[in-house]
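Hello again,

I reread your note about wanting to compare the complex against the isolated chains. To keep things tidy I'm splitting this into two emails, and this first one only covers the full assembly. Below are the input lines as submitted, including protein chains and any nucleic acid or small-molecule components. They are followed by the predicted structure of everything together. The single-chain runs will come separately.
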Amino acid sequence: MTNYAFFLGCITPNRYPGIEVASKKVMSEFGIALLDMKGASCCPAPGVFGSFDLETWLALAARNLVIAEEMGVNIATSCNGCYATLQEANHLLKHNPKLKDRVNESLAKVGKRYKGTIEVKHVIELLSDEVKFENIEKKVKKPLKRVKVAVHYGCHFLKPSETRMHGSAERPTVLNDLIRSLGAEDVDYKDRAMCCGAGGGVRAANLDVALDMTAEKLDSMIEVGADCVVTPCAFCHLQFDRGQVELNEKSGKKYGLPIVFVTQLAGLALGMDPKELGLGDNAIPSESLLKKIQ
Amino acid sequence: MLRNLAVKEGHMRPEHVRVCEIFFKYGHAVPINEDTKAVRKRLALSELPPTVHMYPEALKEVLALVDERGFRALVERKGG
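Full-complex prediction:
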C-alpha cells in the first residue's frame, strides 16, 4: 500500500463528502491509502488570501504542508484551488531560501518548521502516473459505454503550466484519456478551457458574473449532447452543481446536467454503488446518467 | 504584488472580507453545516472532518499564525 496525506480543503468535506469517499474507495482499489491530515485548515484559497497578503497565505499553506511532512508522505488533493495553493507554496518555499526563512520564523511561533521534503499531487496525477490508465481499464467492471462526458479541467489544474507540467494548458488530454479508459466517450465542446466562473473570488463577490460564465459552458456542453460534466475540482463541481439550481431560480431555465467528480465516475466504472459514492447528494439529480450505465 | 499593495491601501471587496472573517472563526473558508454533517454520517464518514473542525487546538494554531502575521488587523481595518 502506498500512503498519501489526503488534503481535504473546504468544499470536499464540508459540502461534497461524496468526493472524499469516492476518492478513498477508488484509490484503495489500486493500493493507495489516502490518510487523514489531522488539524489541516483551508489551504487557504488562492484567490482571496493570496491576493490579500501573499506571505500570510504562504505561512498558512506551509502549516498544512508541515502536517504531511510530519506524516512522512506526499499530499494528494481533490480540489484544484487547494492543489494550486499547496503546490505553488511548496514550489516557492523550495526555491526561495529567504522566503522559507521568513515563513519558518512565523511557523516557529506555533512549534512548526517547514523542511521541503514532500510533493503535492492531484488525485488525477495519482491515477495517471502511479496507477496508470491501462491498469484502470483492466479493472473496469461496468464500462461506461454510450455515456457522453463533457470534461471540465478547471483553471488551477493546468495553469501556470510551467509548474503544473500537465502538457498543453490549452489542449490538455490527461482527463480525456482517463474518461476513455473507463469506456466513456469524451465530447469536445466550445471553449472547453474556459473557467467555470467560480474561481478567483468571483463567486463570492459577483455571483451573477460567475453564473453567466457557468451558463455559457453548460449551454456548450448540452449542445454537443453531453450526459454529464466530469470535473477534477471540488469548487468547479460545486459551481456547476449548485450553479444550475441558482440559474434555474434566476432565469426560469431548466438546467439538469448531472455533475460527477472524476473519482465518482471511476467508481461507477469499477462497479461501486452510486449511493456509496455520494452521487445521490448533488443538488442536480444523477438519475439520467445512472440509467444509461445500468 | 500589486493586489497586496491595494489591500494595504484598504481596497477590499466586502464579500472577500467576509470570507476572511469566516476563516477567522472556523479555519475553513467554507465551514461544515448541519446538512453536510448528515450526509457525512450517511456515507460512513465522521460527522466532522478530521480538520480544524475536529481539532480545536489546530484552529488555535491557525489563528495564532493569522495574528502573528498581522493579517486579522489588516482585514478588520476594512471589515470593522
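For quick reference: Chain A touches chain B through 41 residues (CB under 8 Å).

B.
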